[in-house]
Amino acid sequence: MFEAIAREIGAGYLERKQGIARAGEDGMPIRLELRWSDQVRNLEDMLFVGYCDGSLDPTEKQVIIRYAQFLDISQSQLSFIREDAKRRFAEFK
pTM for the whole thing? Predict the structure, then answer.
């Protein structure tokens, strides 16, 4: 799944390594100068990976909710993004 996401966004090994290194101490990424659509896509990718075992575990859910709050995503917006991620995962399998 991570390789599929990396290909989709054009990220190679170095970009992934830099992304991990740039995460904040609390696990939230630093705010990058990304387009809104890229930020939402990051959230969808998190959900996509989270559903790889069929459901989100409590830790995954907590991280996703914190990231959605970080982006100021409403509950209704998160519901739409979650459904898109589920549909994307179903097509991926």
Answer: 0.69
